[in-house]
Amino acid sequence: MALFQETKKSSLTNLMVKSVWPRDRLEFMNVDVEGLAGGLLRIWDPVIFERTECCCSRNFLLLLGKLFNSFDCVLVNIHAPNDIIRKRKFWESLLNLKTYFPKPWCTGGDFNEIRNIGESVGVSLRDRGMKDFNNFINRCEVVDLLLLGRKYTWCNAFDGHKWSRIDRFLLSPEWLEKFKFNQWGLARASSDHCPIVLMEDTRDWGPKPFKFLNAWMLHLNFASFVEHTWSHSQFSGPAGFTLQKKLFALKLALKKWSKEVYGDVSSKLQVIENDLHQLNLKAEIRPLVEEDLKQQREKKNERQNRNSLNSITVGDTIFEEPAQVKKEVWSFFSNHFSEAWKHRTVLVGDFKSVRFSDHFHLLEAEFSKEEVWAAIADCNGNKAPWEQSSWAGWL
């Protein structure tokens, strides 16, 4: 389940929501933006959470339902007002809602308020706001979990001298009896807020699956390298065992080849992200000195440069002008996702059942080895609907 605040979208399509959700199954609800600010979004897996009722306003999105088919609960996505008077009325409205939705609450999001002076640095404090927020937490009978991983959740993106913990999860005690939750603050990326993760599962699922990169196939030596590695990997045993061993050997060889040819791009990017995260943690303790600020700018520029598209190569021609790059990118994807025919064939008339055909037995016949290889040879890896489709491209 995921909670988003400040979507700044007047409407959200399924395609937009799927772009930030890693699972195939999803349901979502959103609150549209008003003006140029606001907007809430909650996404969940319908197998894990079954919604029965909902309620929303500009500042909250409440769902009542059943978690794991056994735990009745209330989930609230929060983006509290910044004005202290409106915020006080907002707390009261949530307390009134709790009488109508008495099941255990899990409330998370941007509360736009801290609980004590230790939760902020360089930010003007309002005792009245802190008192109202603590009063709301006590009357709502929810628990404020300890934040692990970092001290603050928001940073002024302009100078990095203002920090505060205004994002959090608040849980009814029943949640903590059912689950052993920890609350983690992750590294900030493009937002001035850091993501918050409420996590129970600490099991190690092992290494990530091998990822085949389509860009490898554009290298002139790739095909010959694969052919050489495959032919020189010799194993004895059953066909299935041999195939598994040869694929494993090829995977290791491709990883090594990619690092030698392209460099360890993922590791380099991870190092930059970690360095920025350490600078953010340092800034939470004390103001950054000029040397730290210089390093922060360099790391941000390096990350931006790695993510930027400066030129594109089409055949033997390199395009660097933005207008030309945009034109070639548009042309590629326009052709990539276009269909070969202008008009689809439409069948009309009455059709007899294929079961009465003399050739019906051919439909249920097993595929021959020649047919399988013909199908693989006809595959276009870039358009195949499964993750590691590019394997079919060079097989």
How does this model look, in words?
Strand 4 and strand 5 (60-67) form a beta hairpin. With 395 residues, the chain is α+β, with helices and mostly antiparallel strands. Helix 2 runs parallel beside helix 3 (127-140) and helix 7 (265-285) runs antiparallel to helix 8 (290-307). It starts with a strand and ends with a helix. Helices cover 37% and strands 19% of the residues. It has 12 helices and 17 strands. Among the domains are: 2-199, 4-Layer Sandwich (Deoxyribonuclease I, Chain A); 309-338, no CATH class.
Top keywords for this entry?
single chain; alpha+beta; Deoxyribonuclease I, Chain A; three-stranded antiparallel beta sheet; 12 helices
Radius of gyration: 28 Å
- The CATH top-level class label of the domain at 2-199: Alpha Beta
State the CATH topology of the domain at 2-199. Deoxyribonuclease I, Chain A
Instruction: Please give the share of residues in helix.
Output: 25-40%
CATH architecture of the domain at 2-199: 4-Layer Sandwich
Question: How large is the share of residues in beta strands?
Answer: 15-25%
**What is the averaged pLDDT score?**
81
Number of helices: 12
Specify the overall morphology: extended
Poorly predicted runs:
384-390
> What class would the helix/strand composition place it in?
alpha+beta
Order of strands, main sheet, comes to: 4-5-6-7-13-9
